[in-house]
Amino acid sequence: MVSYTIQAPAYFKIFFHAAKHPHKQVNGVLLGASTPSGVEIRDAVPLLHHWTSLSPMMEIGLEMAAGHAESLGLRLVGYYQASERLDDTALAPVGEKVAGKVKEGFSDAVAFVIDGERLGSGHPALIPYISQSSIWRPVAEASVPFSSGSSFQVSSADLPSRAAALVQEQHLQQKFGDFDDHLEDVTIDWLRNREAMPSDL
């Protein structure tokens, strides 16, 4: 199985998106590249928290995210979502469709569903899904995802606790914006979210 590593900018953006809208469904896409050691997920682009169905807004956001990825020398490699309910860890039908679109351009595409009950616990709290024969299923591995020996890793073990601290102490999620926010205020830099990133990135 292909291995996946989530780097800090991607993890922080996923976390901030979920933290900013804790009672809403949120979603976005993951940017990265294939390397000899597997897929590196280097960045994330947050899409929506209002219109999370497969709408014209979603289509436009996806196209713009793909163009942004290309400008960075990256490509769309995955999708992420958080559900309205903390205990809902199923990949939503719209998630399957969006992840399927990403997979059309990148055969090793992955989807992550945020585990709301574990978010902020010091664990990555992401449930990986991969597609076989166009059916998306949670990954079944001998080891728990993001534990030692798993095909899914974060680039640094302290990323989950750092992300939680940045939300609790610096409230960086308040500076974070997605495509929905950009549609309401075009000054919001939803593709990069530079203002919301810690200064050491």
UniProtKB/TrEMBL annotation:
CDD domains (alphabetical): MPN_UPF0172
PROSITE patterns per record: MPN (PS50249)
Stretches assigned to the MPN domain: 4-135
Pfam families per record: UPF0172
Domain of life, source organism: Eukaryota
Sequence similarity: Belongs to the EMC8/EMC9 family.
Full protein name: MPN domain-containing protein
Species the sequence originates in: Marasmiellus scandens
Lineage of source species: Eukaryota, Fungi, Dikarya, Basidiomycota, Agaricomycotina
